[in-house]
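Encode chain A's predicted structure.
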Amino acid sequence: MDKRVLLIGASKSFMVSAIARGLQKDGFEIVNCEFNKEAILSVENKPQLYVLYLGDLDLSDPEKNGIEPLKYLDEAIDKERFFLYEVGSHEELDYASKFLSVIKVTETYLRPLDVQELSNALSSVVQSNEISEDQKKKILVVDDDGTMLRMIKTWLSVRYRVYMASSGLIALNFLQSNDVDLVLLDYMMPNMDGPTVLTEIRKKEKLANLPVMFLTSKSDKEAVVTVAALKPTKYLLKTMPKAKLVKAINEFFYGPEDK
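Encoded structure for chain A:
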């Protein structure tokens, strides 16, 4: 992946110019286009990295509230497979989420923006995509909630090869013939819950040492004690912020990030 970024936002905006300068300083080539569907469509040879600046939205003006380009991006991201980063206020991000699914957005940043933080995130994607698919760590996510499955896959696919299973039985069948480096396992599932799935995994000789992390909304003491004897690698909560959850996965594989 090359270091090119499609920066979507008013070219005369002070913040858009500041983002462009900050990214250029770190070696990114910036392709700027206005925040409207026609302008985005007119860009040839589009990059795989998109930065969408929402700060110039006029939420009270139907002609300037961005509904059309937001809907377009929501559809295009599935076909063109680009990474999308949003920058805006709480109000602007909430508004955008009505037309552009948060599951499809790679990362969101609140204004005022730390451009260096954004640049570091984009650089990480570029570096990760220089690794071939065969070299990426493989993660199996097991959850009966389809929305949660897609969201976790979106978050982790930036750096990892992610597989999804909507039930414990599907997960066990998958693991019989596929090797992975980590399983993220929901606690509460119908028919076969997380602890039962982990028990079955531990029974199989070739899977006995497979790292398994619980990813669950259950944080009560009873639930934690129930699975402690099964020795899961970690116990992560679904309520964790995205950045904290992804950091926990990254640190498991690669150790703490350098300060």
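Residues 133-254 form a domain with the Rossmann fold fold (CATH 3.40.50.2300).
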